[in-house]
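Why do we care about 3D structure at all? Because function follows from shape, and shape follows, mostly, from sequence. That is the central idea of this module. The next example makes it concrete: a single protein chain, its amino acid sequence, and then its structure expressed as tokens.
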Amino acid sequence: MLEYSLAAGLTASGADAYILHVTTTPSVSYITRCDGFDCGIMVSASHNPYYDNGIKLMNGQGEKMEDPVICLVERYLSGDFEPFGGKDIPFASGADIGRTVDYISGRNRYIGHLISLSTCSYKGLRVGLDGANGSAFAIARSVFDALGAKTFVIGDTPDGENVNDGVGSTHIEALRRLVRDNSLDVGFAFDGDADRCIAVDERGEVVTGDEEMYVCANYLKERGELSGDRIVCTVMSNGGLIKSLKAHGISCSLCEVGDKNVCDTMNATGAVLGGERSGHVVFSKYESTGDGMVTAIMLMEAIVEKGSLSQLVKGFRPLPQISVSVPVIDKTLAMEGVKELAERLEGDLKVRIVVRPSGTERVVRIMTEGESEECCALSCKILTNKISENCGC
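And the structure:
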């Protein structure tokens, strides 16, 4: 419904709409950038249920649209026509009306791009893939089959309503069972729009975005491809990532949560690798946004050359960390007095705390980290109680 509504609005306004149909957010970014489009539009619920579907806007470089442009769009949607001369934007007429183009060839070219990134064959490796019943359900299998892997796939039967339902990167247990039950070498779970990837090693243990960045940073450094021997991670990343990489001569630049913030900080620092614990990992050599498929391919490259995934993450020493999401009715009301309480707890319990409202859900996320797991749990409980008292569901 949203796809056809967008196509109708674009063509009625005089633009041409090239439709990729069911595809991933990174593929829209790639095609927008490489095929010279003015912008890209993605309809997606990301890692959320299908009824949370929304619209992502990208600029001509395939990056998330600049905030001033987003604000302009929001003002127009709210009925504020002042920036447009005080008038509604007129519809096109006659020959100026735009057209729709079935652009399935663009999606196929993106698949070819992914296959070309691999420098080795995956023949002999047994790989589990979880498509989250989303946009990667067919692309992931096509890529890994073409590279020679023996694939075992779940989350590949989308019906329009089951995206991220019990499968995908936010429900990793399904992939863990697949890997363990079939004695696989590795598994990769994507979210609904496939800009995230969470891995599972050959033992069935979860490998988060932090561990993925640890593996890839060391791998790129050994190949002389880690510019400045630095990466970018967010304040939600485990402090153990910073300490573990420091032991290998790699530094971390911190930024606020969000893949746009990661990309902006990478551009500012010249880093070629950055990401989030959630599995958003950006390789600027190949993409201008997070791409779960690229992350999986880069991990496979390291596995083929260096050994099992469990061995590659062996040097990663995480600090005790607890993360919870507190359902709320009003995110603004829920945060009243929370920042001040968190600052007191950080001093009293010697923990690091990040509290932030979710950008996509009616929840407030709490992350506590420190040397003592008991202190992390206590501070998390106190903050949860405070938020629930303010405005809990």
